Amino acid sequence: MITQKQITNAVCNLYKEAVIELPNDVEKALKNAYKKETDELGKLNLKAIIDNIELAKKNKIPLCQDTGLPIFFIKIGNIEVENLYQAIKDGVKQATNETPLRPNVVDPISRENTSENIGNQIPQIDIELIDSPKLEITILPKGFGSENNNALKMGLPGDGISGIKEFVLETVDKAQGKPCPPMIIGVGVGGSSDMSMKLAKKALLKPIGEHNPNKLLANIEQELLETINKNGVGPMGLGGNTTALDVKILTAHTHTAGLPISVCIQCWASRHKTVILKDD
């Protein structure tokens, strides 16, 4: 059995690590963007971002003041787990106090802050059943400078691929510099309305530079990325050639009468970490 204490400690460490250190692929993509950026102001802003990343690692402090809404993607197989939900909540509380993390979670109506980054339905947890004897925990601390620019369109079948592209570009253009670019753009197509947005958010977990295994979707991702990087928004919205680091698309089958399209935007601080626990 994987104990409640094991899970709590793993979640606490995972959250702390996620807000302090970026995944290697994100950091590498930002450094590559700096080398390629030709706009003087764009290069200056990318240098500031890279310096910030190094300072956060050196001083063991969060790399952004918005330490995000705690969102978890859990994969659980044929294994016994003790009090999973409570263990995750306790891990979030512990990380909030120890790191420390900014308390971001509030009641949506009264706006009262819970002070511990937990609350009604928060942390947000997605459960996926797998055929493997392990518990895989991924945290995505999602800042709302980017989250506030997400969008959903309940498209029609006739909108097709051109309609998908048009909606993604329209959403990114509307966002401009608000999501703290260079951004990563997750796109979810299919399922129901809520599944579509979940796909878009899950797409953000895919490694930067990893192409979609479906050649058609890979080509759409690349086309969108190239188009977005010609819009001149640039790093931090102050101009340049690097508005986005990558575009990721995930799809699911859907109803014959619909074409749900979701866009989930992530800032340059694309923080996420994964840990795998097994019953040894």
Helix-residue proportion: 25-40%
Number of helices: 8
**How far apart are the termini?**
8 Å
Uncertain segments are none
Count all strands and give the number.
Answer: 8
- Counting structural domains, the number is 2
Mean pLDDT: 97
| Chain oligomer state | single chain
Per DSSP, what share of the residues sits in E-state strands of 2 or more residues? 15-25%
Computed over alpha carbons, the radius of gyration is 19 Å
Give an overview in words.
With 280 residues, this protein is of the alpha/beta class. It folds into 2 domains: 4-19 and 63-142; 145-266, no CATH class. The chain is 39% helix and 21% strand. The protein is built from 8 helices and 8 strands. The protein has helices at 4-20, 24-36, 40-59, 84-98, 144-147, 160-175, 193-203, 215-228; strands at 69-76, 124-129, 135-142, 151-155, 183-191, 244-254, 259-266, 273-277. The strands form 2 sheets. It has a 4-stranded mixed sheet with strand order 2-1-3-8. Strands 4-7-5-6 form a 4-stranded mixed sheet. Helix 1 (4-20) crosses helix 4 (84-98), helix 2 packs antiparallel against helix 3 (40-59) and helix 6 (160-175) packs parallel to helix 8. The protein is globular, with a radius of gyration of 19 Å. The N and C termini lie close together (8 Å). The relative contact order is 0.21. The model has no long low-confidence stretch (mean pLDDT 97).
